[in-house]
Amino acid sequence: MTYQDNIAKAQQLIGSHPGTWDGINAESVARMKLQNRFNTGLDIAKYTAGVMRRDMAAYDLDPANYTQSLGCWHGFIGQQKMIAIKKHFGTTKQKYLYLSGWMVAALRSDFGPLPDQSMHEKTSVPALIEELYTFLKQADARELGLMFRDLDKARESGNAVEAQRLTHAIDNYETHVVPIIADIDAGFGNAEATYLLAKKMIEAGACALQIENQVSDEKQCGHQDGKVTVPHEDFLAKVRACRYAFLELGVDDGIIVTRTDSLGAGLTKQIAVSKEPGDIGDQYNSFLDCEEIDPATAKNGDVILNRDGKLLRPKRLPSNLFQFREGTGADRCVLDCITSLQNGADLLWIETEKPHIEQIASMVDRIREVIPNAKLVYNNSPSFNWTLNFRQQVYDAWVEAGKDVSAYDRSRLMSVDYDDTDLGREADDRIRTFQKDAAARAGIFHHLITLPTYHTAALSTDNLAKTYFGEEGMLGYVEGVQRKEIRQGIACVKHQNMSGSDIGDDHKDYFAGEAALKAGGVHNTMNQFAA
């Protein structure tokens, strides 16, 4: 409904309670309703699932329509990100949030900082989703509140044209609420545990769940060693559990992102169940590192496979884990992805050890031979040394092309000495266009950085501490923070407004009228930033 429609509907409701609701103002009701567009997390999940589905369809038509996100570990961080996006680009289209299990473990656990091994409280994940959307909804309320105040001023000054412009802007307001791709790790237990957690995450507002094929109790960060995968049927049971959770809650177009860690995972905890040669269990087991044995030499406790009339003993480590053959990671990734898409997944995530477009594309090309519209979510990870990786890629390309590289030492390409060189500039150009190029060549629909705000918080705090506690003193804060906030138009320079003080004043007006004791009077020091 339009702004005026909302006012008219509220007035009709008030009028149905003659004499008892006369103190309620219809336009105030309309404003509060518009400032709280989403009443529940399920409202958010349904809305954002639709947004994401439309974006996926747009990408299928043109890979230039790829989407992006940054990982956020606090509601305020996510809020400021979306406010900045609207300020700089005028729209939130194709911009999402990512919720990283790594950052939940490192920053949001009651146990304190933890490694990314699913040791944090599972409830902290839906709690962060709810927190993120609480802050995004407050960003809507704040921005709309400012528009309402401007509308009142335009009316008071008799500026009908400005009042009409603002009313149109209110009617066409774009929310800060965007899709969140939320990390459910390996499901925090069995399929039932996955289902229960998925429900909590969806109820909090998540329209997209990202689940990985590692063993829950052996889960590792995708960029660390020691990863252990599970057979496909075990993983698919968790994928189905997520789909059931979406359907039960009425989010019929919820998105499931299946992540394979097989490229870097050389171990499995289980031998897959196989009922006949060539089935999915048999394919999984075919990657095991085995040795042929004679039944007479079998040892107590051996696990033995029968393949093509041969008896094979998978290599088992002292940890009781089984080992895959070297060099099978890419083949296992391709099988993981095809199987996931054939069993209800919507998007894929292939965790790689470096940002190399052709490496990713070599697997996606094979997947698309079976499923032509296969699409990826890709981790532009801070675990990669982007500068070094791309300088190495340029160096190697130059060598292959026969170009003279005598001015460069490949073992020290990270050196600042190479920043202002042809090689350094070409590497930076490749980094600059990586997302666009990978979207076109490697089927990447969504690019995210998992941990960026973890690093920016550390970097900005280090810079402030160095100056404020040094000789600059208070100038360290003023020059390094506040002056930049003012000149760059950072919304939270008026931190009282950002925290909701003006919204509270509006409510006092609604509730108490002239008797309201408001915070935003002439003595509010935030007025120093009015200019």
TrEMBL record:
It catalyses: D-threo-isocitrate = glyoxylate + succinate. InterPro entries: ICL/PEPM, Isocitrate_lyase, Pyrv/PenolPyrv_kinase-like_dom, Pyrv_kinase-like_dom_sf. Keywords: Lyase, Magnesium, Metal-binding. It holds the Pfam family ICL. The active site is at 221 (proton acceptor). Can also use Mn(2+) ion. It comes from the Bacteria. Its cofactor is Mg(2+). The keyword Transferase does not apply. CDD domains: ICL_PEPM (cd00377). One of its GO terms (molecular function) is isocitrate lyase activity. GO terms for biological process: carboxylic acid metabolic process. Mg(2+) binds at residue 183. Coiled coil: none annotated. PANTHER family: BIFUNCTIONAL GLYOXYLATE CYCLE PROTEIN, ISOCITRATE LYASE/MALATE SYNTHASE. This is Isocitrate lyase. It comes from Sphingobium xenophagum.
